[in-house]
Amino acid sequence: MSSPVQRHVRRTNSSYLTDRSNVTPVKTEDARWSLLDLVRRCRKPLGLRDRDIAVLRGLLSFVPQSADPNSLVVFASNRALIERCDGIDERTLRRRLTNLKANGLLARKSSPNGKRYRVQDECAESKLTYGIDLAPLFAIRSHLIALAEECSREEIRCKALRSVIRDILYHRAETIQPALHDLACRSLRRSLSSDQLAGLIQELQENLPQTGAEQSSVADAVTVSDRQNDRHIQKSKKEKYESEVAPEKVSTASRSSDPGSTVMGQTNDITVSECMALAKNAASFASVAAKDWGDVVRLSDTLAPAVGLAKTDVESARKAMGALGSALAILGIIEAFDRIRQPRAYLQALANQAASEGVDFVRMFRSLTNCSAPSARRITIA
């Protein structure tokens, strides 16, 4: 029995669906909300509050999606604005509009009767415009982008410095004066700038008694001898550390059973000084200059939380990559933080690759550090 549906109808429908799927338009970014996101990210240096962001969002909702330069003036009444701003009080609305104007995000021109409207002539050309002009906001887009990037770097700085303070409080709690210890604990709960946190770290270091080399659990995993000599990382069948001065080799025999101790392929050597020279961001947060690979591993453990890496992530990576391999991976992620959207997933992918195929850790580290732009991504402490 033949089908009641004609063949050409089937072909027409299938071809129509195929053509329709091929011409699906690509959704473009809305300039209004991308600007609002930039303002939200850098609201602290702009002196804005959450209500300012809400009012700005309400104003942008009256602007067409095309963001035509001739359509950036909002003529909505205060009542309409209040509805778009989640029903805030009118006095709050007036204060927030004044604050937004003071910060250069909008311009206002009031009419004699206090209303917002446009006066046109017989040719439909605007002669007078009374309203809230958002052109200043769209004009400073490039400035907001740069400011948002600086805010991101400041956030990374603060996270790293807080990690350093926690590390000092954890390992040297008994040697810190009680008053200074309480001040440091309170500072961790406050919203301080990177300069203030750096000053606190300097004060903590100045009041610490001078002791010998600090012992750490990492030192058991990484065998180091003379702290005054730089060492190379050389990948062969086992991870080995070579001194630039002494010919003898120091191997990590205690980790010979770890997956990270076996690496396929060959790689170039790198010294501690070269490692810190490439990892400029991480080196700037070190309380003391790294003298051996134990210091490098400890520094990576201290800074890992600053880029969103939990202790379990570091331990998992260390099992697959070894102490030095995971340390180089973490320092490389810190340098390339602006290019890596998900540091945890990236580190896990490196660990999986090291466990299954093997990874040239030095080449990976050089790739991550060389691709970052120093002018845009270097983290400095004043």
Verbal overview:
- By secondary structure, this protein is of the alpha+beta class.
- The chain folds into three domains: 31-139, Arc Repressor Mutant, subunit A (Orthogonal Bundle), CATH 1.10.10.10; 151-207, no CATH class; 218-377, no CATH class.
- Helices cover 54% and strands 8% of the residues.
- The protein is built from 18 helices and seven strands.
- The strands form two sheets. Strands 1, 2, 3 and 4 form a four-stranded antiparallel sheet that branches.
- A hairpin with a 5-residue loop joins strand 6 and strand 7.
- It is elongated, with a radius of gyration of 29 Å.
- The termini are far apart.
- Residues 212-268 and 372-382 have low confidence and may be disordered.
- Residues 27-166 form the Plasmid replication protein C N-terminal domain.
- Residues 275-369 form the Plasmid replication protein C C-terminal domain.
Which features would summarize this protein structure in a list?
alpha+beta, Arc Repressor Mutant, subunit A, 3 domains, three-stranded antiparallel beta sheet, 7 strands, RepABC_RepC, RepC_C, RepC_N
Layout of strands and helices, then pairs:
Blueprint: H1 7-22, H2 31-41, H3 43-46, H4 50-60, E1 73-74, H5 78-84, H6 90-102, E2 107-109, E3 117-120, E4 126-133, H7 135-139, H8 141-171, H9 178-189, H10 194-207, H11 217-221, E5 231-235, E6 239-243, E7 249-251, H12 272-278, H13 280-285, H14 293-303, H15 311-335, H16 343-356, H17 361-370, H18 374-377
Antiparallel strand pairs: 1-4, 2-4, 3-4, 5-6, 6-7
Domain Plasmid replication protein C C-terminal: 275-369
InterPro entries: RepABC_RepC, RepC_C, RepC_N
Region (Disordered): 1-21, 211-263
